Amino acid sequence: MLAAGAAAGYFLVKGGKGGHEQAAGDGRGVSNETPDFAFEVLKSNVIPTADGTHVSREQGRETAASVAATLDDFYKSAFLDPANWREGTYDSTWAFFDKQALTDAKADADTLTLGAGGADYASVMPKPSTTTVKILVDEKGKARTAAAQVTFGALVTDGSGNLTTVASMGQYFLNPDGNGWTIYAFRVQRSDQEGDHDVGSPPPSPKKPKETPSSGATP
Amino acid sequence: MRRRRAVAFAIVAALMAWAGVSVARDSAPSHAAKAQASLQLGVAHPAEHYPPIGTKPIIFLVLGDSTGRTVEESRISDSIHLIGYNPQLDRATILGFPRDLWIPIPGHGTTKINAATQYGGPQLMIQTIEDLTGIHIDYYAEVGFTPFRTIINDLGGVVVNVPYPITDSHTRLHVKKGKVDMSGKTALEFSRSRYGVPNGDFSRSENQGIVLLSLLTKLHKQFSADPRTILDWIGAGLRNTQNSIPLDQLIALALAAGQLPPKNVNNLIVPGSVDNVGGISIVRMSSTANALFKDMAKDGLVGKK
Q1: Residues B60/B14, Cβ–Cβ less than 8 Å
Q2: Domain extents for chain B?
Q3: B10-49 residues touching A, CB cutoff 8 A
Q4: pTM (2 decimals)?
Q5: Mutation site, B223, B228, B238, interface A, largest A CB count within 10 A
Q6: Chain B contacts of A111, Cβ < 8 Å?
Q7: Phi, psi of B46, rounded to the nearest 5 degrees
Q8: Which superfamily, per CATH, for B11-22+53-157+199-299?
Q9: Over the stretch B115-163, which tens digit does the pLDDT of each residue have?
Q10: B233 and B187 in contact (C-beta within 8 Å)?
């Protein structure tokens, strides 16, 4: 049941809310297409709420994949879809939030989306991005809620060829919603840097670290 | 039916149930349909939302049961705490009831409060405390001896700031004053000890509250690092307690509990004095307790700090 639901959810969210269809270029040398994007699921963890509940590793992975698929589409809508960032409007993005979260999500649009000002961008391309997912299951093994930690990155190129790395990191809580997932809670930070950088790794230390013995001994 | 054995108290269910939304914003500022900012070099302010739980105070009854050797045997609640949370003030109160408190139990005359669960389950305990205090109880959580240990172990133990050295031959607890990293077994012994502590039943009830606060401290720390850890707590709680909290509400409350600073919680005991009835040691409630109940009934809190 879990697997079937997850598979169906994956199918629906892939073609479901938030996704603009791919569009051709606009004739100005600027792409109108939403680039392909998918989070790499580094880890999934199923948490039972009753003793004796069995959820196979495969079922857990499938459910995590369906959660990740929703987040794939969310980030495409919020950061990668030129129809959204070029206009600075994100109506399709808000469809990923439940009613109670929507007001706060919109109020935090500058953190949760690429924001306004995209008219000057030439392209926004995703960087390798990762997620880990926890899934709370009921006594029948059915997913009741999930929480994902994400590290997302994108490279923005403006009309002059200047590069900016956009990073979005945080946690999303999602509830099953029909065959997909809806965000009901979140804590997300946004961090942008000039140039092309990896995301998810700590910034380089300003000081060179001291040499340490190679014996592996620890104090 | 889950096993209900010996003494304990419903730690995790309580922690998942006793707080309110401190960060969630019910009425966010008006927003424009368009995003307001472009690229933001450096770290932008975090976007944050947790499900709202309203503004009314919420009261939980947390029971730790001591039972017989079989599941079917009636249980006795040896740990009894009301936990009140005021979402508007973002404060909470833990109010412990000495298990030997001598009070009327509806339909069963005057006896020790801990017998109420034995006579009529959590519902009779709720009725008994509501009648005694005038405080409306919204939810209850109940845990037994073995599940309590399991919860603590599942969560990786808990660091408790022990207020005085304890040597108790009854529970076999031997701990020094100060911070002690406790396993489920030690936390249970600490929660049960009444012979190695200064004020018997009162100290025991207070120490149970200290364990609750210690778990809140751990939850708060973990939540700050990664809010998703709340699902581990909910899982551990649901696997090991019985409670009346719907899952959606439990998740919202747990997310709120993770944000509640432990310093915003006070830990109190219903005042009373030790007495004797027919050779049985009891606790008689002080007349000052009524003012305390009245205070808590008003806004879920005792005092405002």
Answers
A1: yes
A2: 11-22+53-157+199-299
A3: 24-25, 27-29, 31, 33-49
A4: 0.81
A5: B228
A6: 44-47
A7: -75, 145
A8: LCP protein (3.40.630.190)
A9: 999 999 999 999 999 999 999 999 999 998 888 999 999 999 999 999 9
A10: no
